[in-house]
Design a protein that fits this description.
The complex is a heterodimer of chains A (884) and B (108). Chain A is an alpha+beta fold and 884 residues long. Helix content of chain A is 51%, strand content 14%. Chain A has 4 domains: 75 residues; 177 residues, no CATH class; 307 residues, no CATH class; 192 residues, no CATH class. In chain A, helix 13 packs antiparallel against helix 14. In chain A, 40% of the residues are buried. In chain B, helix 1 crosses helix 3. Chain B has one domain: Orthogonal Bundle (Arc Repressor Mutant, subunit A), CATH 1.10.10. Chain B is elongated, with a radius of gyration of 15 Å. Chain B has 108 residues and is mainly alpha-helical. Classes of the chains: A alpha+beta (884), B mainly alpha (108). At the A-B interface, helix 2 and helix 3 of A face helix 2, helix 3 and helix 4 of B.
């Protein structure tokens, strides 16, 4: 039957080939019947249609499609598998693992650590970086910023935004949003300072968000002078109103103004900084009237379909150029920059997270190498078993299958434990992460993460199992069956050495990465912020009184009362605070051209500010009680401002103005520069000036900002005074909301939290890697010593000293370590370049760090070699030789 | 699957086998059901004893120069179960005059 022998032709026909592949799934005792049924069906269908060679592509596709049903058939037959060899392999594997509980425990634990850490980090990466934002078609959303040079970007002024909105043709919609606004919520129980968000009417619809309850803003609500409307966040609604749906239509007092609640956002809604309440930005249009002046606004837009980012940016730049001609004063050189929303939200955290993901991947590799090493040792022990099986007729494939089943089983156990670890680890890591990382709270071990874990653990199982399995399945029959064998062949030992070298190299890379981050962190902490953060209590006291005189009196009285508390050294108030907020207005130097207005950070502070903060006075004087609203208005500048704008003259006695029509301020003192944004950036070095809180015009006092910082320098633990200070506030005015009670040290720590986080995590990974690698070295050397007991015995009988034996064994181990260290140093040079942006004050190839880490690793490795070496040196030659 | 009610797909397949469609592919063509449904259903029906499978006679296959096919036929039990199921679906049809001519499982 020439046409029946189609085994050769089977591969030429994809449908028959597919049947063969799928057939592997079918339990073996059913397989030949199953195959024949499918092949016959397909063949007869083929005959019915035409011969294969004459089939058109449609017929071929039909056959191929039909053959895929075989997959479902094969899957269904899985339940008949119980007597099958795969199950036998599994059962046997379980028995083997139970027989060696020590080995199983170590291997599973190692893998669980590796897989668990990977799962935890991946769940965070997945939530923060990979998952699309829960807005409608988020890929079409962009953030629009202004820029004056190729780099950087800042929030445009509201009037510019209004012109963009009116003139563009590239966006479906474009909206303004200002987060980080604060509202005093009063009139319903305890007063509270709320986080607020000012938004254009179409803000939610642009994102494609429907209110959970109620309705969205109407266009006519987004302008001054209309009935104010507010949309509450789900969290605030639950917290303050117990999720009562009848809140819709009720009134709410925010900043002494009555707002009608019109809607509630969905529970998972998030946009930038968390906000308890959103209100139309148009209500406060008056505040944003000045073009080219802060406060600006963030701008979000949805691209029209078929409009690229490039096209949109080009058109907006044309509009910007027109605006520049129209308003040269404010819009000189201003162009726009479009950033995809996703990029803009996660751009900063992407690199640290990816580095951590890479690091944790290396840890898993090391864990794999360790387990592979254990398996190789075990394979030596099982050599006889393998030899017997081969002698009884087992094929090599059978042995490999059996061994791979065991290693995948190990990986599965490791993964199970690892997932438990990850559940716990994910929340632990998430709680350690700095605030402001979007969607971090969504990080959890969910379906995509579990798929990832499954894939990782299968891969791991194959990775660490394959080489040992291939090794073990090639037993030397005569060697294996002999009694009193010497065990390992040279080849196997060689393989284990390669694994240890690899482990050492990977560990060194991780350690160097962690070392560089630790160095950077230390350098950052060594940066002098320009003030003394210790023993400094801060809190924010809201200003919700339209009467300027009363506000002034209140803060005067408050400072006095708090100063009298025991444990308080000095007290001050300020509208801004380093690492928090400060205004960045333009100013004018009298007698100089007005066109080029410099800007600087402005803090409005009471006289005790410099003493309380510990800011050094360089020249002149600080504010005193003699500076009042009736005397000459004065200002204190920092050294940066002095050097930049008065390079060759004495600034004392010179005058500044904040705007042409405002009163002139005489410079009476120069203080040291204070880091404002962070400890590790160049952006912090900028002009700063201080105005006197006691000279602030009474009518502007209530409107200047929503709150005033109260700073208390203490002689005791600052937070221990928190409640006493709060009580003083309440004693003066029980409706006064106090928030953000923190120490200055906490505020500074918050600014380095992201850095601290990546440093800590990478260090943990590196330490785990170090532990695994030393375990690997120790295991290898112990085994080698055990193998060479007789040899060592002979050497000692022939007169070798203890030191000779130590040298012999340690030398053997350290040779591997040195090779690993050398390779690791090379790899580190290549890899640490990727983390350049995370470093501060230390180069990516810092020789000190590299040397120190290499030494540390060598020392630990030495210890790991020493223990087995000492065991070798204690060999009693008589006992060792007796076995012969 | 127990010997309780037959699913609508199983009934349709049983009916196809009962009316002389003996091979998997023919049943797929006749019922329009996807192969991923038909084969597992056939296996279930065979396990439940409603259909039995046999290999085609060697000579027939040889004549057509192909391997022998496996064909399915109704057992006595299968015939009873089919009659039962048809009765039930008729009843269903009558109680819901406007719905369910096409017994598609709803995707709740």
């Amino acid at each position: 039957m020439p046409r029946l022998s189609r085994s050769k032709r089977g591969f030429a026909k994809p449908h028959l080939w597919l049947i063969r592949v799928i057939g592997v799934l079918v339990p073996r005792r059913l397989r030949s019947d199953w195959r024949q049924e499918w092949e016959a069906e397909l063949r007869s269908r083929e005959l019915l249609l035409e011969e294969w060679d004459r089939l058109d592509w449609r017929g071929k596709l039909d056959l191929l499609w039909r053959s895929t049903s075989a997959f479902w058939d094969a899957l269904w037959l899985q339940q008949l598998r119980w007597e099958d060899e795969m199950i036998q392999d599994l059962r046997y594997g379980v028995r083997m693992l139970l027989k060696n509980p020590g080995f199983t425990f170590i291997a599973v634990l190692t893998l669980a650590l590796g897989i668990g850490a990977n799962t935890a980090i991946f769940s965070i990466v997945n939530a923060v970086l990979l998952r699309p934002f829960p807005y409608q078609a988020p890929e079409r959303l962009v953030i629009i910023q202004e820029r004056v040079s190729a780099q950087g970007g800042f929030s445009p002024s509201y009037p510019n935004f209004v012109d963009w909105r009116a003139q563009n043709t590239v966006f479906d919609s474009i909206v303004a949003v200002r987060t980080n606004e604060s509202f005093n919520f009063t009139g319903a129980g305890e007063p509270e300072r709320l986080q607020g968000r000012l938004v254009s009417a179409e803000f939610f619809s642009t994102l494609g968000i429907q209110p959970l309850l109620g309705r969205d803003f109407l266009a006519e609500e987004d302008r001054p002078g209309v009935t104010p409307a507010a949309i509450l966040s789900y969290g605030f609604w639950r917290r303050r109103f117990g999720a009562d749906p009848s809140i819709i239509g009720k009134q709410l007092t925010l900043n002494k103004q009555s707002f009608t609640v019109i809607g509630i956002t969905p529970a998972n809604f998030q946009f930038g900084v968390e906000a308890d309440v959103s209100v139309p930005i148009g209500l406060q249009a008056e505040r944003f009237r000045v073009r080219g002046r802060d406060p600006g606004t963030d701008v979000v837009a949805r691209l029209k379909p078929n409009v690229s980012e490039q096209q949109a940016e080009t058109e907006l730049n044309l509009i910007a150029a027109r605006l520049e001609q129209q308003y040269p004063e404010s819009n000189k050189g201003r162009r726009v920059r479009l950033t995809p929303l996703h990029e803009s939200f996660v751009g900063d955290v992407r690199q640290p997270l990816l580095i951590l993901l890479g690091a944790v991947g290396l840890v898993l590799l090391i864990a794999c190498a360790n387990v592979a090493n254990l398996l190789l040792v075990r394979a030596s022990a099982r050599q006889k078993e393998m030899a017997v099986r081969v002698a009884l007729g087992a094929s090599r494939a059978t042995l490999v299958r059996q061994l791979l089943t065991e290693s995948v089983l190990l990986a599965a156990l490791g993964a199970t434990l690892g997932i438990l670890l990850a559940f716990w680890g994910t929340s632990l890591i998430a709680s350690q992460l700095p605030d402001g990382i979007p969607r971090l709270q969504e990080a959890q071990v969910d379906a995509p993460v579990l798929v990832f874990t499954l894939a990782v653990s299968l891969l791991t199982g194959l990775l660490f199992g394959l080489v040992p399995a291939l090794q073990a399945s090639r037993p030397n029959l005569t060697e294996g069956l002999k009694e009193g064998d010497r065990g390992s062949s040279g080849r196997r030992q060689h393989l284990r050495s390669v694994l240890v070298v690899g482990e050492v190299a990977l560990t060194l890379t991780l350690l160097v990465g962690a070392g560089l981050l630790i160095q950077s962190f230390r350098r950052v902490l060594e940066v002098d912020p320009g003030f003394k953060a210790q023993n400094l209590l801060t809190m924010q006291v809201s200003v919700n009184n339209p009467n300027g005189q009363q506000v002034a009196n209140f803060f005067e009285q408050l400072q006095q009362n708090v100063r009298n508390l025991p444990g308080v050294k000095s007290v001050t108030v300020s509208d801004g605070l380093p690492f928090e907020m400060a205004n960045y207005p333009a100013f004018i130097i009298e007698g100089r051209p007005v066109q080029k207005k410099p800007s600087g950070l402005r803090y409005n502070v009471s006289p005790a500010y410099f003493q309380t903060m510990g800011i050094e006075l360089i020249r002149g004087r600080v504010f005193t009680a003699q500076d009042t609203r009736d005397s000459q208005r004065v200002v204190i500048i920092n050294d940066v401002l002095a050097q930049r704008y008065f390079p060759n003259e004495d600034p004392l006695g010179k005058r500044l103005k904040q705007s042409p029509e405002s009163p002139s301020l005489e410079i009476v003192g120069i203080v040291r520069h204070v880091e404002h944004y962070n400890l590790d950036g160049q952006t912090s070095v900028q002009p700063q000036f201080y105005t006197d809180f006691n000279q602030t015009p009474l009518q502007t006092l209530p409107n200047s900002v929503g709150y005033i910082n109260l700073l208390v320098r203490t002689e005791v633990e600052p937070l221990s005074l928190a409640s006493a200070v709060r009580a003083q506030v309440a004693a003066l005015n029980k409706d006064q909301a106090v928030s953000g009670v923190r120490t200055m040290e906490q505020i500074v720590a918050q600014s380095v939290a992201a850095r601290r986080f990546s440093m800590l995590l990478l260090t943990v990974f590196a330490v785990v890697a170090l532990a695994l690698a030393s375990l690997g070295i120790y295991g290898l050397m112990s085994y080698a010593v055990a193998q060479r007991t007789r040899e060592i015995g002979v050497r000692m009988a022939l007169g070798a000293e203890v030191s000779d034996v130590l040298k012999l064994v340690i030398g053997q181990g350290m040779k591997l370590v040195f090779v690993g260290v050398a390779l690791g140093l090379v790899a580190s040079v290549a890899l640490t370049r990727t983390m350049k942006t995370l470093l501060f004050g230390v180069s990516a190839t810092d020789p000190v760090t590299f040397a120190a880490i290499a030494l540390l690793l060598t020392a630990v490795a030495l210890l790991a070699c020493f223990v087995p070496a000492r065991r070798a040196a204690r060999v009693n030659p008589m006992i060792a030789l007796r076995g012969e | 699957m127990g010997k309780g009610f037959l699913s609508s797909a199983a009934t349709v397949i049983l009916q196809a086998v009962g009316s002389g469609y003996q091979y998997g592919f023919d049943i797929i063509d006749m019922t329009g059901l996807p192969g991923g449904t038909v084969y597992p259903a056939l296996r279930r029906l065979e396990e439940a004893g409603y259909v039995a499978s046999k290999w085609e006679h060697h000579r027939i296959a040889q004549q057509q120069q192909r391997p022998p096919r496996r064909y399915y036929e109704l057992t006595r039990e299968g015939r009873e179960a089919l009659a039962e199921a048809i009765k039930r679906y008729r009843l269903l049809e009558r109680t819901q005059p406007n719905k369910g001519r096409d017994p598609k499982p709803s995707r709740a």
